[in-house]
Amino acid sequence: MTRIGILGDGYTAEELVRLLCRHPDIELVQVTSIEHIGQEFAQVYPNLARYTKVRCVPLDLPDLVAQCDLIFVALPHGLAVPVVREVVRQGKKVVDLGADFRFHQADTYEQWYHVEHGAPELLREAVYGLPELYGAKIKTARIVANPGCYPTSAILGLAPALHAGLIDPETIIIDAKSGVSGAGRTLALGSHFSECNENVKAYNVGVHRHTPEIEQELSALAGRPVYVSFSPHLIPMTRGMLSTIYGRLIKPVRLEEVHAVYRDFYADKFFIRVLEPGELPQTKRLTGSNHCDIGLVLDQRTGRLVILSAIDNLVKGASGQAIQNMNLMFGYPETQGLEYPGLYP
After folding, report:
1. Exposure of 189 by Cβ count < 10 A (0-12 exposed, 13-18 middle, 19+ buried)?
2. d(C-alpha 256, C-alpha 177), whole Å
3. Which of 67, 271, 279, 285 has the fewest Cβ atoms within 10 angstroms?
4. Closest by CA position to 244, among listed 175, 162, 316
5. Which pLDDT score is estimated for 187?
């Protein structure tokens, strides 16, 4: 059994606990909290009643790491560095669901997140935790940086097209929409029901913190610097994310050829579903699942490829992907504890 600790008690921590309850090879040792110390986690999230007896405890970092084989850090950015340092000191493993270890360069992180990094020397060994692209590296990693939800959707949608040289990297536009759970559980005016309901709004257009993360990984795929126009939107639903991505074709191509490229690229990737021509993703089909659905449209009139990529932002966009990474790190089947469809309707 692999012994697991979770730092944090927000939505991503809840999803980690919910999903780990189904994992046959995991023992959940601790969940740390500030606000709910002493409570059973199932009191904080009653949907978990009868599925876990773990209690929320205050953080004793050396003791937590000593008790566990792997730590999930489900905390806001800027808080993971001391945890990762202690994990490395004790020779254990960590998956950080925040942004602290996603960038190759500390100055990029500091520029976009306005926080001094604190451990730039550890960035060299951190592996970007997108299993469909970096599975082999994740298997031997001790520090895995779980991708953000928007980058997961965008990168998975674009990876085959960039790898095959189908689109001009300078023409990429990403229009993405996310459910309100992406804002977390902390109270904020922008996520109040009366602010979100019957309302769709763009935010942080051109300056969203996930932009450099997307660009870093797309640049690696394209073999050259890539800069994108990224516009995120908040939509009035709890879960789900849909990215509509546009790129100008480098040369004429048939839709069947594009589909073949995508199917070949993801041929052995269980969680990626390339939809049939004419079929487009819907967020509702992915609720609660670790899948990513990709639909493709060839706009012959404008010479653009339109890629539609949908995920559950809390599962493939966060906790499910973190468990997928954990499975790889400990030699379990990649789908262990995650192999189930979305809820519908």
Report:
1. exposed
2. 27
3. 279
4. 175
5. 81
Distance, in Å, from the CA atom of 278 to the CA atom of 287, rounded to the nearest integer, reads 22
The share of the chain scoring above pLDDT 70, in percent, equals 100
Query: Is 149 a known active-site residue?
Result: yes
Question: Quick check: 55 and 39 in contact, CB under 8 A?
Answer: yes
Residues 6+ apart with CB under 8 A from 121: none
DSSP state of 317: I
Which among 56, 68, 149, 196 is annotated as catalytic?
149
Task: Supply 259's token pair.
Answer: 């589909």
CB 249 within 8 Å of CB 303: yes
Residue 129, CA distances (Å) to 117, 119, 235 in order: 19, 19, 27
Radius of gyration from C-alpha coordinates of the chain: 20
User: Which helix or strand (DSSP H or E) is residue 298 part of?
Assistant: strand 292-299
Preceding amide of 345 cis, omega within 30: yes
Q: Higher model confidence: residue 265 or residue 22?
A: 265
| Separation of alpha carbons 155 and 172, rounded Å | 12
Burial class (CB in 10 A: 0-12, 13-18, 19+), 160: buried
Do 280 and 295 form a contact (C-beta atoms < 8 A)?
yes
Report pLDDT for 186.
86
In this prediction the pTM is 0.97
Return d(Cα 78, Cα 90) in angstroms, integer: 21
pLDDT tens, residue by residue, 142-184 = 999 999 999 999 999 999 999 999 999 999 999 999 999 998 9
Residue type, 342: G
Query: Which are the contacts of 37, defined by CB distance < 8 A and separation ≥ 6?
Result: 56, 57, 58
Report whether pLDDT(62) > 90: yes
Per this entry, what is the length of the chain? 345
- Mind listing the pLDDT tens digit for each residue in 279-333? 999 999 999 999 999 999 999 999 999 999 999 999 999 999 999 999 999 999 9
